[in-house]
Amino acid sequence: MVKGIFKYIFVIVVIILAIYTGFKLIKEDSMGEEGSLDQTSKVSTIQKDIRLSIAELDTINPILSNNRNVHEISKIIYEPLITLNENYKLQYALAQEIVKQDDTTYIVKLRQGVLWQDGSNFTENDVHYTIDRIMDPNVSTVYRDNLRYLATYERIDDYTFKLYLSQAVPFFEYNLTFPILSAKYYGEDDFVNTDKNNSPIGTGMFKIDTVDGGNIRLVKNDIYWDNSKKPMAEEVIIKLYSSMGEVYNAFKSGELDIITVTANNIEDYIGTLGYNKIEYKSRQYDFMAFNTQNEIFSDVAVRQAISKVIDKDSIVVSCLGSGYVSSNFSLDMGNWLYTRDLTTAVNLDEARLILENAGWIYRNNSWIKNGKKLDINIAVNSNNEARVRVADNIREQLENFGIKVSVLQYSPERYSDMLNNKEYQCAIVGIECSFSPSLRTFFGEGNIANYYNTEVLELINKVENTTDEGVLYDSYKIIFDKYLEEVPYIGLYRNTDIVVYNQGLVGNISPNAFNLYHNIYKWYRQ
């Protein structure tokens, strides 16, 4: 009798567990269709809109706009042929495949089945139209440089075309990140002056629904081609402001969910409570270039020793402050091909040993070899006050080590000529890093450091002609080993930008210099 009761209880327990498991799976499946919710959230607490901002709107047309906010937000309305992920790795968007036939010829195969937000088909004609607008000398656009070396466009069929370049461009595919607009939508209208620029259509996950004096309302694009990216938010409200000061006030009062800022003292504007902050590395990178063909800096031991004397963190703290971080190389802003840490630790004892082993003798607070003192010049643009301060700081650090330094300030014009003609010993240089992982600026022919290494040059040619990620990764690692060994440059620092967002905004928020809104389809607010 007792055994029968236990058997009956066991059957009831199994049935209850089966019902619970089935209900749990159904619930998880239904939630999966809308994205991943934070475990602490309940469906009833989720707000179905996200609130963004644009300060000083010029036009929402991303080709014509010079507004940073517009370019940021355009990533969720319009799409390029090629996009980049959080690690700046190339990913296909409207392009399905790109084949490099030779150094200057590319075949582009487009993704089929993509619809514009008005329901019309996306085809090769839209890409051709957009490229023609970008290259039109009467159109002012930030994307002109992307197509600087495009010579000819050739249509093959509705979803295929060829691009012919006037010269080889390393990693040219990375230039195809400009947004594509609809040829049919614009028709024969004047691209620059038409009222259609008030609400152009795109192929992205959100589309413009309404525009009024103070807001642009985006709604979820129900015919978006990528079924793996179904936004949790039903709409995005873009609030328009006349200045960044108004944006700061709106964020502080809770009217906005996320903003990007360049102000280093953002706390002075919005306080310190009620929001989260993400600082990410920008494209602005400053470094020290040695003229490796100069009599002094042809000695690799001198370059190696100096790399172990300069304290980058001290430079940032003493000369620059917040909004900057020490940096080792152009790709260390988060690029997936930054294959190893290139940090060189400050080590004065090792620096002394390097010089001594190379025949330098330390005497009377100076390093001497063959009767000559180790005295150097650092060239800097006189108009860049930050770099002048940095050069002076480096001078102090090196002179404390026994290397006499003269900081030579030149006008911008003379400074540029001097760099081009290699008329310097070493210089403080700044560039805006490309999204492309090309290293020709640093190691290719005619590079800033006048540096030549046969093995490195062969590797650069190799990586520019492969799409094999394994080959790329291994080749860059070898190049970086040579960089540390021969020290043609010393990375110094780079600017940072900041994203601040309200604590009620939930999701994987991972901005970089290419896109602030990676994974926005998973975002929601409580």
Your description of this structure?
The chain has three domains: 34-77 and 204-274 and 503-526, 3-Layer(aba) Sandwich (D-Maltodextrin-Binding Protein, domain 2); 78-188, Dipeptide-binding Protein, domain 1 (Alpha-Beta Complex), CATH 3.90.76.10; 281-497, Dipeptide-binding Protein, Domain 3 (Dipeptide-binding Protein, domain 3). The longest helix has 31 residues, at 2-32. 29% of the residues lie in helices and 25% in strands. It is α+β, with helices and mostly antiparallel strands and 526 residues long. A hairpin with a 2-residue loop joins strand 6 and strand 7. Residues 13-43 have low confidence and may be disordered. The radius of gyration is 28 Å and the shape is globular.
